[in-house]
Amino acid sequence: xxxxxxxxxxxxxxxxxxxxxxxxxxxxxxxxxxxxxxxxxxxxxxxxxxxxxxxxxxxxxxxxxxxxxxxxxxxxxxxxxxxxxxxxxxxxxxxxxxxxxxxxxxxxxxxxxxxxxxxxxxxxxxxxxxxxxxxxxxxxxxxxxxxxxxxx
Amino acid sequence: xxxxxxxxxxxxxxxxxxxxxxxxxxxxxxxxxxxxxxxxxxxxxxxxxxxxxxxxxxxxxxxxxxxxxxxxxxxxxxxxxxxxxxxxxxxxxxxxxxxxxxxxxxxxxxxxxxxxxxxxxxxxxxxxxxxxxxxxxxxxxxxxxxxxxxxxxxxxxxxxxxxxxxxxxxxxxx
Lengths: 152, 174
What we know:
Distance between the termini of chain B: 58 Å
Structural class of chain B: alpha/beta
Largest sheet of chain A: none
Shape of chain A: elongated
Low-confidence stretches of chain A: none
Largest sheet of chain B: 5 strands, mixed
Mean pLDDT of chain A: 87
Helix content of chain B: 25-40%
Number of helices of chain A: 6
Radius of gyration of chain B: 20 Å
Distance between the termini of chain A: 84 Å
Structural class of chain A: mainly alpha
Strand content of chain A: under 5%
Number of strands of chain B: 7
Mean pLDDT of chain B: 94
Order of helices and strands of chain A: HHHHHH
Radius of gyration of chain A: 32 Å
Shape of chain B: elongated
Oligomer: heterodimer
Helix content of chain A: 55-70%
Low-confidence stretches of chain B: none
């Protein structure tokens, strides 16, 4: 019974999934939407696999404050992103920008897909093509087979 | 022959990449501020809050900015190395006291010794954000032209001082 209770404790006790996040007042719904989108797409540099919205790290809190204040000052989402990239580099973005050194990152999967499709088509064509054997070799083979049969 | 050569080549390539991946340090995010002008700040000095120090005050000389805090354990570890660097009197070592209580910071310096020419107070961490600081300690080397030449992430060890920071300093000072 006691072990069952203990088990139940673990099963029914759910840790809070979202980090405790300070609440900000927004002037407009659009601004709030921008804020939420930004903190979802910006990476927390301390806990590198979390975004700003999920992280409870001190730096994440500061960067959320910075994001909020910039939006309040009338800056655009693009300006907030530029601010972060200027300080922390492209790594801060969960969705990397499309530029010279990220072409391979963005296009790589499609290139691989094309390569695989090409190889697949080639293989299928080869499999479906009737095998061409020249007539002389065919006749020779036939003759050999007949000889073998009659030879028995 | 090609039946074996191709998979082998792919295997060798993959193994090579993964092997290299083992030694990468994803925690050390390269700073976009290298070879860019050191971000401006104007902050109160820890030893005399009525006086301010700004980036402009340091122009014309090679200097080192060390980001530290009394709550930071690794700062204790590198304190000895920063002190050794300051003792060489090659460059001015400025401390950026990051998100700290000034009282705690002053006590920390008193207890362990103060290697800094001065420390400035970044109470809310805004200057830290401008410098792209995401973990304490961090150490920047700034040239006489006001450009950031090198950034060290994490505690400076005697080894990294000799192998990474000193060569940069020597080149800047020559």
